[in-house]
Amino acid sequence: MTNSSGDPVHTPHAAGQGSGGSGPWVIAGLVAVVAIIAVAFMVIGRDKDATSEDLRTVAEQSRLQGLVEGAQAGADSATLSAQMAGDRVAAEARSAAQDARNAAQDAREDAARSISAPPAPLPVTPEPAPEPAPPIPQ
Fold first, then answer.
1. pLDDT tens digits, one per residue of 50-82
2. Residue 129: CA atoms inside 13 Å, Cβ hemisphere, count?
3. What is the number of other CB atoms lying within 10 angstroms of the CB of residue 120?
4. Which residues, at least 6 apart from 94, have a Cβ–Cβ distance to it below 8 Å?
5. Helix-strand-coil split of the chain, %, nearest 5
């Protein structure tokens, strides 16, 4: 701001006054009020008549829930193991089928070569001439 002579006008600021305002203090106050109300509800809502029978019932229900969850985890693990074993067996079967196809192809090729090749000559070994029979004495 400037005055009528063109010189800037300085206005003093009050000590301790910042530019933040009161917004953060209002939010902090609201959070504190909500926390106090929540604690009050927790204290008032507490069941003061919980008996040992109720506690045993809750403990038994928790134990049963743990057993059910453990059984479910075991079933899930067994299912996963069975799937993995099935995949492994299927892969081995595919490999064995490919090996059988390769062996059959090799056998066909060997058969085709043996049919188209001229027969090998049989070795001829001369037999010795029979010896004359000894003379019969008279």
1. 677 877 888 888 888 888 888 888 888 889 999
2. 3
3. 6
4. none
5. 65, 0, 35
